[in-house]
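Database export, one record per block. Field names are fixed; values are copied verbatim from the stored entry.
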Amino acid sequence: MKRTAFILLASLFVLTSCVYESGVSEAYSKYRFKDGVTTVSVPGWVIHLAAGIGDLEDNERDLLQSIDRVKVIAVEDDNLNARVNLHDEFYKKISEKKDYEQLLVVREQDENVTIFGRMDESVIEEMVILVGGDDNALIYVKGEIRPELLNNYMDLSKPNRFLSLGH
């Protein structure tokens, strides 16, 4: 009986942790082992641990406590950056998913940035930040983020650093 309960609990954990985010999972699978690409996946417990032990202001701690998972893909190699455009490659796949809406769009000559979000009433449950052009990155954030927590970190006057976690 204990073994059956353990197997059911483990299966439930595995199934709930393998959520498929259209575009995000594809990008992560495609680029995670490529030379010149940095991929990072941070589970919520690590983020919450950092929020508890870091020297942070209250709003920074609240923001970290509201995040359950982060995945990052960043193209670091200049040659690869010249050949790929993550924004062009995954924009359509993410925007076609009707659960996501565009929260912010920045278009410049050499850079495109789109922030998609999936909201439930007053919180952002998922955010996808898609960057393409001279720099390429895809950042996926899952949690229950109140939009007012992000207000202190958004600076629309600087499109190349509109989201800054280091004041």
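Remark 1: The two ends are 54 Å apart (CA to CA).
Remark 2: Helices lie at 2-17, 24-31, 44-53, 58-65, 78-83, 86-96, 147-150.
End of record.
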